[in-house]
């Protein structure tokens, strides 16, 4: 039997403040957490949702170094962008704070000190890479070298992003410091470790026996780690950005980001509720739920619980409903490759359409396996579901009520068998949705809400009140009363998923009550209630809008290819004598025309300083003929003539092929006389 709790504490993974947030973050963590929290609030339960930016760690220092600014400049910039994006998408945090705050530094420091004083850490001295030029130890991300597996020359000390293999810095071939470019040396350094192996027996029972109800992907990953055996994990590192290690002899060391970041949940709760925070973290009647992505499972199910258990006074998570990853158009979302749909850009391109994205990301949520976001699916779900089903039904119910009853809720008369059958179809919606929502199956819960709209749509289509209006207004009144009651149910059912649209619908229906407990009732709107004017809840998205988004991604892909382009290998060496036989000269283009029936060829008349010559060149796809007239170009003057399409070509114009395949004719930078030799 499931335990009944007095309150719920919802936490969401802290996004790194080294870039904006994208749809993968939204689908994996923040929309599910918001749906769950809004649902509990609608039920009148005591729930708070805690979030914040993770502002420590190497990715932030790397970005700061690349831009030549302090880490604080970076985190201030992105914390504000992230916070604003969440607010605009309706992610209803009770607090969204940050780990660079004073309260967080103190909370994390005190937490470390308590574990230190209890003897929960072990001290170990080990050899790590040190940059003698920069005079600092190097975190894994500060070391770049050749991957021993795929031979990518830009692999990091913790992972090769080309083949995805996890690495140790010492695995790299020819390691270099990312700071100075010099070859690092090994040097001894002391750090503190949390002995996870000490907590292995407790974790095995707590997870593998007591939490078999956890999602299979979460349970499976935890079991895999536990089966391999846990090892001590460093809680400090040599870095100058973060929470300083609060013990003597730890100068120049900070708390490892994996250790300080989850304490951010505690410090943010303290900031929100300075007098009541312990009620949410230390009372056994509080249900703690962590919403995260699959890359954070180990930290939230094994490492953080081990920290809390070692401290001794905190509750442990009741559930960690981690999602898998969302891909984008068949490719893994990547911040470094700019392969993402960024939330702040989406809001610029689709103003007022937050709920469309929330709907699509929930309907396609990666709850049990990685899923794919495509712009075509986004358009189809908007046009075929939100517009054609939900929006269409609500609009018809309201417009017809305004047309026939001056916008007042009509009286409900005697119900036909078909009316009763329709009502019976949605009496179980509340129980179904509750079961799904409480077991973190948000995709299925959304389907149930949309089924309610489908029931309403079918009801209006089958009863055809616009035809009955000619003969039986009492029957029309009953039909529209039921249609409006279904609409009111939709305003409640969709509130956790589509908060902006639900609010708009409630305003149209002049609903005074927003309470989950009345879901399934058929008397939510009283007879005679004056409705507000009908407005469209959703609008169709045109092909041209989607094509623009697809083109934006194609442009990104092309830019990435150009960025990663490697020049073709150098051909076999030739002797200087062979090279000296080439006579390369400068000529001025006097005339240039397309060669008939040849897509690639242009015919040039060149002033070569010796009376002129004709050259045929295959660059017609890269230049308009008129753009070349008057240019000075380089050409090989002593190439044996050859016929192309019946025209004798007396030389070859030199071009460079760019990474994207474009040909660019070689021109001297300054004006020179035709016939000048290239030396």
UniProtKB/TrEMBL annotation:
'HIGH' region (motif): residue ranges: 15-25
PROSITE patterns with a match to the protein in the record: AA_TRNA_LIGASE_I, TRBD
Catalytically driven reaction(s): tRNA(Met) + L-methionine + ATP = L-methionyl-tRNA(Met) + AMP + diphosphate
Enzyme Commission number(s) from the entry: 6.1.1.10
* SUPFAM superfamilies registered for this protein in UniProt: Anticodon-binding domain of a subclass of class I aminoacyl-tRNA synthetases, Methionyl-tRNA synthetase (MetRS), Zn-domain, Nucleic acid-binding proteins, Nucleotidylyl transferase
Query: CDD domains, from UniProt?
Result: Anticodon_Ia_Met, MetRS_core, tRNA_bind_EcMetRS_like
**Entry cofactor note text?**
Binds 1 zinc ion per subunit.
Q: Whose protein is this, by species?
A: Coprobacter secundus subsp. similis
Main location class: cytoplasm
> What is the protein's name according to its record?
Methionine--tRNA ligase
Give a GO cellular-component term: cytosol
| GO biological process per UniProt | methionyl-tRNA aminoacylation
Give binding positions for Zn(2+).
Answer: 147, 150, 160, 163
User: Into which EC class is this enzyme placed?
Assistant: ligase
Q: Gene for this protein? A: metG
- Residues recorded as binding ATP, renumbered to this chain, are 335
